[in-house]
UniProtKB/TrEMBL annotation:
Pfam families: BPD_transp_2. The keyword Transcription does not apply. GO terms for molecular function: branched-chain amino acid transmembrane transporter activity. It is found in: Cell membrane. This is Branched-chain amino acid ABC transporter permease. The chain crosses the membrane at residues 37-56, 63-83, 89-109, 116-136, 163-183, 204-230, 250-274, 286-305. It is a multi-pass membrane protein.
Length: 327
C-alpha cells in the first residue's frame, strides 16, 4: 500500500510537469497562442507559490506580504526598461540583489515575532512598498508602467513567447529540484525543527533565527525571479502585483495544493488558475462559485489536493484488500 501511495504521489506531479512541458507544442498544433499566456502565468505563479511554501510549509512562517517580492522583480524590469536597459543579466542581478536586501531587512524585523504578529508585519511591509509604487508617478503610479521590450540574454530575448515559457518552466524545475535537496539537507532539517519546537532547537545549539532568515531571503529571491518573468509575460508592471490580494492568492495556491510538499503549490496554482479561467467564461461573478470550491477542497483534505492523492490511494487499497485494511 505504501509503494502504491508513493507511486501515485510521484506519478501525478510528473504527469503534470510533462503536460506543462508540452503546452507550447499543443498551442502550436492547435494554433491557440492564448494557451502559452495562460499556462505561462500558471508556471510563473507556481514558482512564486513554491518559494512561499518554503516559508509556510517547512518553516511555519505565514507571510501575508510575499507578493512584495513578486512586485519588486516586475518593477526592476519595468524601471530598467524605461531607462533603456534591456540586458537580462542586469535585470536578473538587480532583482536578486534587491530582493535579498529587502528580504534581509524585512526578515530581520518580522522573524523576531511569530503567529499573528508575523503575518501583520509582513503585510505591513508589502503595503508600504505598494504605496511607494503608487507614488512613483514617473513610472506610471497607480496606472502601472508598460514595458516596451523584454529582458535580453545575448541573442535570446524573453519577448519570444516560447522562449519565455520554457525559461519559466526551466526555473520551476530548478526550484523543485533545488528545493527538494534543500529541505532534506541539514539546513532544511533545522528550519523544519524550528517550526515544530523553536525553543528546543535553540537549546540544542542551533541559531534558528539565522536559518529562518536565510530561508526567508532565498524565498524572496526566488519570488523576485517569478516577478521578473511575470513582467516579461504581461509587458506591464503595476503596484497591484504587490497588493495584499496578490499575496492572498499565493497563500491560496499553497494551501489548495498542499503545503510542505513543494509539488503541492504547483498543483494548487494549476488548479486555481484553470478553474478561475473556466469560471470567468461563464460569469463575471465567478468568485461566488470559486470561494466555496476552495473551502470544499480544504475540508476534504487539510493537506490539500496533493494530500488527497495519498488519501485516495489508501481508500482504493482498503477496497481492494479489506482484510489488510482492517488489520
Amino acid at each position: 500500500m505504501t509503494d502504491m501511495k508513493l507511486s501515485l504521489r510521484t506519478a501525478v506531479p510528473a504527469l503534470l510537469l510533462a503536460a506543462l512541458a508540452l503546452v507550447p507544442v499543443y498551442a502550436l498544433l492547435a494554433q491557440q497562442p492564448f494557451y502559452l499566456t495562460l499556462f505561462g502565468r500558471i508556471v510563473i505563479f507556481a514558482i512564486a507559490a513554491v518559494s512561499l511554501d518554503l516559508l509556510i510549509g517547512y518553516g511555519g512562517m505565514v507571510s501575508f506580504g510575499h507578493a512584495l517580492f513578486l512586485g519588486l522583480g516586475a518593477y526592476v524590469v519595468g524601471i530598467m526598461g524605461y531607462h533603456g536597459i534591456d540586458n537580462g543579466f542586469a535585470h536578473l542581478g538587480v532583482t536578486l540583489a534587491l530582493c535579498a536586501v529587502v528580504g534581509a531587512i524585512t526578515g530581520l524585523i518580522s522573524l523576531r515575532t511569530s503567529g499573528i504578529a508575523f503575518i501583520m508585519i509582513t503585510l505591513a511591509f508589502a503595503q508600504m512598498f505598494y504605496f511607494l509604487a503608487v507614488s512613483l508617478k514617473q513610472y506610471g503610479g497607480d496606472d502601472g508602467l508598460s514595458i516596451a521590450s523584454g529582458s535580453r540574454f545575448g541573442s535570446v530575448t524573453l519577448d519570444n513567447p516560447n522562449v519565455l515559457y520554457y525559461a519559466a518552466f526551466l526555473v520551476l524545475c530548478l526550484c523543485l529540484w533545488a528545493g527538494s535537496r534543500l529541505v532534506k539537507a541539514r539546513f532544511g532539517m533545522v528550519v523544519r525543527g524550528s517550526r515544530q519546537n523553536d525553543r528546543r532547537m535553540r537549546a540544542l545549539g542551533f541559531a534558528t533565527l539565522r536559518y529562518k532568515l536565510v530561508a526567508y531571503i532565498i524565498s524572496a529571491m526566488v519570488c523576485g525571479v517569478a516577478g521578473m518573468l511575470y513582467a516579461n509575460l504581461t509587458h506591464f508592471t503595476s503596484p497591484a502585483y504587490m497588493a495584499w490580494t496578490a499575496s492572498g492568492d499565493l497563500i491560496v495556491m499553497v494551501v489548495l495544493g498542499g503545503f510542505g510538499s513543494l509539488v503541492g503549490p504547483v498543483i494548487g496554482s494549476t488548479a486555481m488558475l484553470l478553474i478561475e479561467e473556466l469560471l470567468k467564461g461563464y460569469t463575471e461573478h465567478w468568485m461566488i462559485i470559486f470561494g466555496p470550491l476552495i473551502v470544499m477542497a480544504v475540508l476534504l483534505s487539510r493537506r490539500g489536493l496533493y494530500g488527497l492523492l495519498g488519501d485516495l490511494e489508501v481508500r482504493l487499497a482498503r477496497r481492494a484488500h479489506p482484510v489488510e485494511g482492517k488489520a
